[in-house]
Fold:
Amino acid sequence: MENKQIAITQFGDTDVLAIQTGQIPEPKEGEVLVEVNFAGVNPIDVKTRAGLGWAAEQNKDNLPWIPGYDIAGRIVKCGPGAERFQESDNVAGFIGFPVQGGGYSQYVCVPESLLSYVPPAVTLEAAAAIPLAGQTAAQALNKVKVQEGDSVLILAGAGGVGHLAIQFAVAAKAEVYTTCSERNLDYMATLGAHAINYEFAPVSERLENIDVLIDLVGGDIALDALKCLNDNARVVTIPTISAEMICEKAKLLGFDATGMLVDPDPEQMDTMLYMISVGLLKVEIQKIYPYTEVADAHKQMESGHTRGKILLNMKC
Structure:
């Protein structure tokens, strides 16, 4: 048996992604060996491949490097002292973040403490879609203390983090507004958000008196959105490249602003899996690519027009 993995061989365009074949690893103390069915593709993977951002900086002397932080699959072996799961259990998790990665693998050893049991009512596809995006969404809302009655603007609501953040904010009984392209207006409404077509006009011309901004875009779009906020508004910005600039500008305007790096939290993952199992959380998956088509998956992510999540099928 061999282990196929997708590596970033050097920083650059999608042609730097290569399929490597290696040995199936042996789980160490407290680890389990997971046969990965699906790996999530996230914007950070694409950014790192291009040589941008913190994970790229940390790994520049460590290439080839296996990206990927979201996995869902089946336990095939438990290492010494690993007792939480049994062989053949379905599990999912947010692994190797932010420096180690490793999710774009057919087999990967993971500390069992990072994994969550996937109940039979939840598909492995859905489970692979939520670790990084779902926890980013939940932690962003916690950071700005979204509560009942708040008016919340979420930039890019149709994306991987956005479509989950909308559902969490709606569940908190906030009044939710979001930006999206024309083709996603109806989809955003089904999630309970008031959708604003950013192709039609800047959001600052359409909204005012917003209490909370959850910025999933960064740059000039986020700076424009600051004009929609009322006094004492709270701002959380996720894209790290522009976070400092946005926080600085927001604070000059008198807002409470913070950047954020998601922190893997298996208990939060357990909660989201439960919510999916009982129908309280819907996961949108735009496309599942065979791992051999990883370059196309990265191109789709770079297009900026992904509804929900993109996955890699690591089995085919």
